[in-house]
Automatic annotation (TrEMBL):
<dbReference type="InterPro" id="IPR005946">
    <property type="entry name" value="Rib-P_diPkinase"/>
</dbReference>
<keyword id="KW-0808">Transferase</keyword>
<dbReference type="GO" id="GO:0005737">
    <property type="term" value="C:cytoplasm"/>
</dbReference>
<dbReference type="GO" id="GO:0006164">
    <property type="term" value="P:purine nucleotide biosynthetic process"/>
</dbReference>
<dbReference type="GO" id="GO:0006015">
    <property type="term" value="P:5-phosphoribose 1-diphosphate biosynthetic process"/>
</dbReference>
<dbReference type="GO" id="GO:0004749">
    <property type="term" value="F:ribose phosphate diphosphokinase activity"/>
</dbReference>
<dbReference type="GO" id="GO:0005524">
    <property type="term" value="F:ATP binding"/>
</dbReference>
<comment type="similarity">
    <text>Belongs to the ribose-phosphate pyrophosphokinase family.</text>
</comment>
<keyword id="KW-0547">Nucleotide-binding</keyword>
<dbReference type="InterPro" id="IPR029057">
    <property type="entry name" value="PRTase-like"/>
</dbReference>
<keyword id="KW-0067">ATP-binding</keyword>
<comment type="pathway">
    <text>Metabolic intermediate biosynthesis; 5-phospho-alpha-D-ribose 1-diphosphate biosynthesis; 5-phospho-alpha-D-ribose 1-diphosphate from D-ribose 5-phosphate (route I): step 1/1.</text>
</comment>
<dbReference type="GO" id="GO:0000287">
    <property type="term" value="F:magnesium ion binding"/>
</dbReference>
<keyword id="KW-0418">Kinase</keyword>
<dbReference type="GO" id="GO:0002189">
    <property type="term" value="C:ribose phosphate diphosphokinase complex"/>
</dbReference>
<protein>
    <recommendedName>
        <fullName>ribose-phosphate diphosphokinase</fullName>
        <ecNumber>2.7.6.1</ecNumber>
    </recommendedName>
</protein>
<dbReference type="GO" id="GO:0016301">
    <property type="term" value="F:kinase activity"/>
</dbReference>
């Protein structure tokens, strides 16, 4: 993505925010499974 801009950009990660939301909004989060919508996301 950075290659499309002529200005400096930062790579921001959503994982901390998503984990916080899961822990706050899903009471049984420890018994949950998260799946990837596509094969490319599975390696992340």
């Amino acid at each position: 993505l950075q290659g499309f801009f002529d200005i400096p950009v930062d790579n921001l990660f959503a994982e901390p925010a998503v984990l916080k939301w899961i822990k706050e909004c899903i009471p049984e989060w420890r018994n949950s499974i998260i799946v990837s919508p596509d094969a490319g996301g599975a390696r992340r």
